[in-house]
Design a protein that fits this description.
This protein is α/β, with parallel strands linked by helices. Helix content is 25%, strand content 26%. The chain has four helices and 17 strands. It has a six-stranded mixed sheet with strand order 3-6-11-14-16-17. The protein has a four-stranded parallel sheet with strand order 2-5-10-13, with helices on one face. Strand 16 and strand 17 form a beta hairpin. Helix 2 packs antiparallel against helix 3. The radius of gyration is 17 Å and the shape is globular.
């Protein structure tokens, strides 16, 4: 189960209440910073923008490919470890707005993780160190350290232990 906090709303759907949950100017600033970072090819600059202006925790030598979309409303709830690669056009969400409630959850991505292109990571997810997420994966539950996962919905393809056995045989 994902680790999210739930906030019920009354009346219109929760997205209609957006500026009661997050300030307009915060979203505007975050949008401009994220759009700048999405298109810049300079990896150190992206990490600096994310740390300095969005409050994200980004490890050393972590690489965000072009078009990566961190959460525009709550980027400070995203943490990425050292030497991790986030693939092209990946979306990392720390919020979800539903009809009768909205949910917030921290996203923690470990060290030496590989996230394939066009993946989506939902709020409240933890991806363990050394994990590999296949391209176009919907990460809707935690990924164990060292596992190889993929699909929509995500399934574990190999655990770290199974990978070790396969490598020992070859």
């Amino acid at each position: 189960m994902r680790r999210t906090e739930r906030y019920p709303v009354e009346g219109a759907n929760s997205l209609w209440h957006i500026y009661k949950t997050v300030p307009f100017w915060k979203v505007s600033k975050n949008f401009l910073v994220i759009q700048t970072a999405r298109y810049t090819p300079f990896l150190p600059m992206k990490n600096w923008l994310y740390r300095q202006f969005l409050g994200m925790k980004v490890g050393k030598e972590t690489s965000f490919a072009l078009m990566v979309m961190p959460d525009v409303m709550f980027p400070e709830r995203i943490q990425v470890g050292d030497n991790t690669v986030i693939g092209y056009n990946t979306t990392i969400l720390a919020h979800e707005y539903l009809i009768e409630e909205y949910r917030l959850g921290d996203v923690s991505i470990g060290d030496r993780v590989m996230i394939g292109a066009n993946s989506t990571i939902l709020p409240g997810i933890k991806i363990g160190d050394g994990a590999i997420v296949s391209a176009a994966t919907l990460v809707h539950k935690d990924v164990p350290a060292g596992a190889f996962v993929g699909g929509n919905p995500m399934k574990i393809i190999y655990t770290a232990e199974e990978m070790a056995v396969r490598q020992a045989k070859s």
